[in-house]
Amino acid sequence: RLVRDFAPGPASSNPNVIGPIGQRFIVETMTPNFEAQIWSVADDGSAVRLPIDGYDGWFSGRFKAVGTIGGLMALDSDSETSLWVTDGTAAGTKALTDDIAFPLREYREGFCSLGQRAVLFGDDRAGGRHALVATDGTAAGSTVLARLDGYVAYRAMPAVALNGICYLQLQAMDGWHLWASDGSVAGTREIASGVGFDIYGLATMGGNL
């Protein structure tokens, strides 16, 4: 059945379902003027437009859900370096990286969920190059786990969690660096590194990384 028509008539809203959160699901649409909009839609078709802005594009599908932090969905756009969180309501939607109290000024992938907390990689707001941060989805509940000033890490590959540990692979000018974190400062460390770019992702199988 049709739940909601975002552009009644012949025009297409090109809807992109980002994912569910609670009893609602998050949808990205495009207006006839190519304005991107993010909506929180209930099963009965009622919808609330979420205050996610700063982005216009020619097609939808630019936003994606990168994971969850407790009851929050984390959203990333491939055209920006902001990280958004939402509980499906307008009041509960915000850009973490826009909050000056949040340790990262820019998000650079590497999201890893540990249930009520997540580990992120990005640019250090305190003036350093990069940092690993643990967060509960709020600036107040965020902690710098490690500052990575010893090398230039320009991106993180998709991270994975295994047995309560996040594994993040960072690509740097001098090769790759593999970090492990349980979400605490004491439990965050670099466990391996190598020259070149011959490792392009992580996966788990049979309890192994």
Distance between the termini: 42 Å
**Topology order in helix (H) and strand (E) letters:** EEEEEEEEEEEEEEEEEE
Class of secondary structure makeup: mainly beta
What's the mean pLDDT score? 85
The major beta sheet can be summarized as: 5 strands, antiparallel
- Rg over CA atoms, rounded to whole Å, is 18 Å
Helix-strand blueprint:
Blueprint: E1 16-21, E2 24-30, E3 36-42, E4 47-49, E5 63-69, E6 72-77, E7 83-86, E8 94-95, E9 104-107, E10 112-113, E11 118-124, E12 130-135, E13 142-148, E14 153-156, E15 160-162, E16 165-172, E17 175-181, E18 188-194
Antiparallel strand pairs: 1-2, 2-3, 3-4, 5-6, 6-7, 7-8, 9-11, 10-11, 11-12, 12-13, 14-16, 15-16, 16-17, 17-18
Briefly, what is this?
The chain is an all-beta fold and about 210 residues long.
Overview of this structure, please?
This protein has no helices and 18 strands. The chain has 209 residues and is mainly beta. The strands form four sheets. Strands 9, 10, 11, 12 and 13 form a five-stranded antiparallel beta sheet that branches. Strands 14, 15, 16, 17 and 18 form a five-stranded antiparallel beta sheet that branches. A four-stranded antiparallel beta sheet has the order 1-2-3-4, with no helix packed on it. A hairpin with a 2-residue loop joins strand 16 and strand 17 (175-181).
